[in-house]
Specification:
alpha+beta; globular
């Protein structure tokens, strides 16, 4: 993470809930997928506009710098100030229910139970450091027996995310201007229970 200067600022955000319950149905999944598609298109359009604006701005800046070097120096110094964003999210209990709400039925399908959810993020310019602590389990609903059965045994992990400018001189490794690293570590073994009932549930309700 880059060091801050005397003109830089810090923004700290802390979010904490005692519990969080999320219920997702078929219509909700369609709405989320459409929103993500619209967001992707908007980002692509914004990136194209920014690229065109940058080309025009660079041309104007070259003319202004040649006419007034002192003004350009002041503008450069003002633009060099940075803001460090520190965000922390802590939710001890998160329950996510996936249901089949087609027609008049409200059939539960899967339930994700998170006993620990903690996120820490630090961002400044092109640098991002984030860590996520998870402790979770999952169950599925056996409609024939009308009981919840285990799908994912209690399991915890730590996810580390790092994004920074790619400074490598190797042309093979320098594919993008930024370098992203994601690591997942867990002390426990991951136990996933795949049963005939679970496979049938996924095929009947989740395969389009």
């Amino acid at each position: 993470m880059k060091m801050l200067g005397p003109k830089d600022s810090v923004c700290a955000v802390n979010v904490a809930f005692s519990a969080l319950a999320i219920r997702i149905g078929f219509d909700d999944s369609l709405l989320i997928s459409r929103a993500l598609a619209c967001l992707t298109k908007a980002q692509e359009a914004a990136a194209g506009e920014i690229g065109a604006d940058d080309a025009s701005t660079n041309s104007d800046n070259d003319a202004e710098d040649s006419a007034d070097a002192d003004s350009g120096a002041v503008t450069s110094a003002a633009a060099s100030s940075k803001m460090l964003i520190i965000a922390n999210v802590n939710i001890p209990i998160v329950v996510v229910d996936l249901i089949n709400d087609l027609g008049r039925r409200q059939l539960p399908l899967l339930q994700l139970r998170i006993r620990k959810f903690a996120v820490g993020v630090k961002m400044v310019e092109d640098y991002i450091d984030a860590d996520v602590l998870l402790a979770m389990s999952a169950v599925y609903y056996n409609e024939k027996l009308t009981v919840w059965e285990p799908m994912l045994e209690p399991w915890g992990c730590v996810v580390l995310f790092n994004k920074e400018p790619n400074t490598t001189k190797d042309e093979v490794l320098r594919i993008n201007d930024t370098r992203t690293t994601i690591s997942v570590t867990a002390e426990q073994r991951l136990d996933l229970n795949l049963t005939v009932e679970l496979v049938q549930l996924l095929m009947e309700n989740m395969v389009c």
